[in-house]
TrEMBL record:
Residues 48-181 form the Thioredoxin domain. The keyword DNA repair does not apply. It comes from Amaricoccus solimangrovi. Keywords: Membrane, Transmembrane, Transmembrane helix. The chain crosses the membrane at residues 6-26. InterPro entries: Thioredoxin-like_sf, Thioredoxin_domain. This is Redoxin domain-containing protein. It comes from the Bacteria.
Length: 195
């Protein structure tokens, strides 16, 4: 066997070993994702403080009657989204499920800004006709929304009870947990344990 033949065999052995190592690492990463508990919504210090009344705005609804926040005696979840945000679109099925599960006490309002046409296409393609859908730059500015997807939970009395950046259903549901427990965020709970 020549030196060239030996080199080719050695390189193939190395490639096969590397593929095995890559597979093992990928499997370990998957196991870590399963074991790590979900972290709650990342609360923002911007916008209205928890416990403060939401700004009174009359908001035009792309799907029907105008929307008013903090009125009507029901809790509201305002979900800020963008038509170009893949995470926002991935959370839409979770919002539909939450709307069905929590219909007795919660209304979900979708909020964004920009031109109406892309939002009409999103409403049509994702089947969002049953949600109040508002386009209001003033709403986003009043809550000082800097990153998406962002959600704000408003109690029936019109006060902000939880808010934060949400990237998963677990983070959305953490807003409800924050409302029930009075602990505004996962970060606040950890800070309380360490003090």
């Amino acid at each position: 066997m020549t030196l060239l033949g030996f080199s080719v065999i050695a390189l193939w052995v190395i490639v096969i070993l590397q593929l095995g190592v890559i597979f093992a690492l990928a499997r370990q990463v998957g196991i870590l994702f399963e074991r790590v508990s979900p972290v709650g919504a990342m609360m923002s210090s911007n916008g209205p403080d928890l416990g403060t009344a939401v700004p009174r705005l009359a908001l035009a609804n792309l799907n029907g009657a105008p929307v008013s926040l903090g009125t009507g005696g029901r809790a509201q979840l305002v979900f800020f989204l963008s038509t170009s945000c893949p995470i926002c679109k991935a959370l839409l099925p979770a919002l539909k499920s939450i709307r069905g599960d929590e219909a007795k006490w919660l209304d979900i309002v979708l909020a964004s800004d920009g031109r109406e046409a892309p939002h009409r296409r999103l409403i049509e393609s994702e089947g969002l006709g049953g949600f109040p859908y508002v386009l209001s730059p003033e709403l986003g500015m009043s809550f000082k929304v800097a990153k998406l997807p962002f959600a704000v939970l408003i109690d029936p009395g019109g006060k902000v009870v939880a808010k934060g950046l949400v990237n998963s259903r677990e983070q959305l549901e953490s807003l409800f947990t924050a409302s029930e427990t009075g602990i505004p965020s996962y970060q606040a709970a950890i800070a309380g344990l360490s003090s």
